[in-house]
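Quick start: what a row looks like.
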Amino acid sequence: MSSKILTRRKWKLYAHEQHIVVKYGVRERFVHPVMKALIWALYLPDYPTASIEIRIDDKYKPDVVAFDSEPDIYQVKQKPVFWGEAGQTSRAKIKSIVRRYPDTHFAMAKWDTGLRPYIDIVSSALQDVRRNAPFDLISFSEGSQDLIDDDGNIKISFDDVEWLRL
């Protein structure tokens, strides 16, 4: 059974002694904000400055992003060290961001979907690109929202997901 907190439009969620507020938009698929929260919690130990829906100085907006230090809202030219995408991500977006951010660790998550087709898409985007950081593909299984309890605590590890590093 899903957490009672997820019946609201705004969720205050906790992981690794931090919290985040996630808004569930009216026209948004339920799994999209859930995936953003799960990506945030999954990578938080490695990227303690991670946040959700922070606009950066880029044509594209990451679903989850982390910087070397706490983001300065007046310094939008900071390069992200981590960029997470939840759900649909176009081939053009993947190609664009991997080229412009060779030192940024990327994670692209899907809901209850096999990763095989995305391996080919991402591999072709990475072809001929000099990268210094990994690109992860993640699939959250149906029911992964149950990793969020009634108090908003997220308990997740890489053992809870299908995960592949390219």
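That is the whole record. The first strand starts at residue 10 and ends at 15. The longest helix spans residues 31-43.
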